[in-house]
Design goal:
- It is a single chain.
- By secondary structure, this protein is α/β, with parallel strands linked by helices.
- Among the domains are: 3-129, Nucleotidyltransferase, domain 5, CATH 3.30.420; 371-564, Carbamoyltransferase, C-terminal domain (DHBP synthase).
- It is built from 20 helices and 22 strands.
- It has a nine-stranded mixed beta sheet with strand order 14-22-21-15-16-20-17-19-18, sandwiched between helices.
- The longest helix has 27 residues, at 270-296.
- The N and C termini lie far apart (51 Å).
């Protein structure tokens, strides 16, 4: 089995990847190509890109691995759906529904065979949380504990597992509707943000205030159970009533005695910052409860964390201090968009039993553009530009003078984090830079922080309890002595969601920061994603041009070209 397509084809952030001989060669989210943020569309454009970038056609594919096992969702016989054949392809569902009625099934996966022009393609539908857990194959660990936590997948909302000898052995699980992801989404919505989309806003707002009474109220909504399990008091939640609006109900409103915030109510008031803080603290209580139990029964010092909840970098930065695990691996794409990687990895290692680490050099897996391609587009749109010899040195100098610049280089990053190829960059020494970018460029809430991208060898000088964070997966405390040097990237709680920049992964971005260091004696730079509010991160040259001219950016460095306003 040589060529494998991995797919996240269900839910938000659909995506695709291609694995060739155990190596991930391409991966992209559908939103980057469709320009529909957090799209649920089938990843047709993503598949097309992955095939084209590898010089393949669909007939060259040996297998497709999909990060959901719908057979589990057929465990209860659906009389209406199985008899309703007004759309004839429904027979694919109906036949299975009748055949497996009252039968035990293999929940881990099921497979089908598709014949295209005498080419046999095997299709594997793999259990969702197994795909999240399979991010262990992308880690450097030979053994580890694994925790996966999200909204839900088929029936599970979280799992605890051990990883050893290339095998994943599940210890236990929590079932939906008792879901940590749904708990956090409930209060995301309560504070006026979009659930399953804008949880990072709640996380950003959680650092401003504390209200002990409110924290105790929210804590009483969750009961911690033995063996790392937990239960929500469902009298206050509505997330499992799929046919009804809202994640919360009137009981929760009466219990909190605070009206839910509407998105058009203007800036957040203190009571909603209190809710954000309390929800974050309860999230961490449950998160660490799971991980501490896993550590209590695990001999490994290593932990793999995956699932949508692993996007919570504030909690991630506290794992080693609170759980006993020493070494943490969190993929830059722990959410469902990264499940395509896990699906392909599970197929190779568990189903085909090849027992080998999945090779992934870095997470720059999307489209790239040559200088020739860029110049053709700039001329087409009659945009004035200059060609720069040493683009990193030139850009660093402009940033050091206060310019806010777009940086469009190399291959697009896979995942929600801009890791120095589709970034907006600025001088972290400025106290007003955060407000300026939020207001004039990103058009977003002023309480949201920006990431420091720091040369890896300087991270222990700037951060307490320093850990590698190549993909912005952790928020760590700044050391007090450096806070006044870089106020633009220090959050209100004195943390930063850092990216440790290693020259072996992104030499061009490393060189830019190093040039900035030579000028300013500051080995880090403000880094945020190159997009405006409501838009996915830019992918193409056209996307970059559009976002540049729609925002208050001063300059754009695209390939070896400088564009000014």
């Amino acid at each position: 089995m040589k060529n494998i397509i991995g797919l996240n084809a269900i839910g938000f952030n659909t995506s695709a990847c291609i694995m060739i001989n155990g190596k991930i060669k391409a991966a992209i989210e559908e939103e980057r190509l469709s320009r529909n943020k957090r799209t649920r569309l089938f990843p047709e454009k993503s598949i097309e890109y992955c095939l084209k970038s590898c010089g393949l056609q669909i007939n060259d594919i040996d297998a497709i691995a999909i990060s959901w096992n719908p057979l589990i969702n057929l465990e209860k016989f659906d009389k209406f759906q199985s008899r309703n054949l007004s759309y004839l392809p429904n027979i694919l569902h109906a036949a299975l529904n009748h055949i497996i009625k009252n039968k035990e099934i293999n929940e881990k996966y099921f497979n089908q065979t598709l014949l295209l022009k005498k080419k046999k393609i095997e299709i594997f539908f793999i259990k969702h949380h197994l795909c999240h857990a399979s991010m262990a194959y992308l880690s450097n660990f030979s053994n580890s504990g694994i925790v996966t936590t999200d909204g839900f997948g088929e029936k599970e909302s979280s799992t605890l597992s051990n990883f050893k000898n290339f095998k994943i052995n599940k210890i236990n699980e929590n079932f939906f509707p008792h879901s940590l992801g749904a708990f956090y989404s409930t209060f995301t919505e309560y504070c006026g943000f979009t659930p399953q989309s804008e949880e990072w806003k709640l996380m950003g707002a959680s650092s401003y205030t504390k209200n002990e009474n409110l924290y105790k109220k929210l804590k009483n909504l969750v009961e911690l159970k033995p063996e790392g399990k937990f239960e929500l008091n469902l009298n206050y939640f509505n997330h499992y009533q799929f046919h009804r609006p809202n994640y919360f109900n009137s009981e929760l409103i009466n219990y909190l005695n605070i009206d839910p915030r509407q998105n058009d109510m203007g800036p957040m008031s203190k009571k909603y910052f209190d809710i954000a803080n309390s929800a974050q603290r309860v999230f961490e209580d449950v998160y660490f409860h799971q991980i501490k139990y896993l550590k209590s029964i695990s001999s490994s010092q290593n932990l793999v964390v995956s699932g949508g909840c692993a996007m919570n970098c504030v909690a991630n930065g506290k794992i080693t201090k609170n759980t006993g695990f020493k070494n943490i691996f969190i993929s830059p794409v722990p959410d469902d968009s990264g499940a395509c990687l896990g699906a392909a990895s599970y197929l190779v290692n568990e189903i085909r039993n090849q027992k080998k680490k999945v090779f992934l050099k870095d997470y720059y897996l999307g489209p790239s553009f040559s200088n020739k391609e860029i110049e053709i587009k700039l001329n087409k749109y009659q945009i004035k530009y200059k060609r720069i010899k040493n683009i990193e040195k030139h850009a660093a100098k402009e940033i050091s003078t206060g310019k806010i610049v777009a940086w469009f280089q190399g291959q697009l990053e896979f995942g929600d984090r801009a890791l120095g190829n589709r970034s907006i960059l600025a001088d972290p020494r400025s106290k007003r830079i955060k407000d300026l970018i939020n207001k004039k460029i990103k058009f977003r809430e002023k309480f949201r922080p920006f990431a420091p991208a720091i040369l890896k060898e300087f991270a222990d000088i700037y951060f307490e309890e320093n850990q590698s964070s190549d993909y912005m997966e952790l928020a760590l405390k700044f050391k007090k002595k450096v806070i006044s040097k870089v106020p633009g990237v220090v959050h209100v709680d004195q943390t930063g969601r850092l990216q440790t920049v290693d020259k072996k992964y992104n030499l061009k971005f490393y060189n830019l920061i190093n040039e900035f260091f030579k000028i300013t004696n500051i080995p880090l730079i403000l880094n945020t994603s190159f997009n405006i509010q409501g838009e996915p991160i830019v992918c193409s040259i056209e996307d970059a041009i559009k976002n540049f001219y729609l925002s208050g950016l001063d300059k754009m460095y695209i390939g070896d070209f400088e564009i000014s306003k």
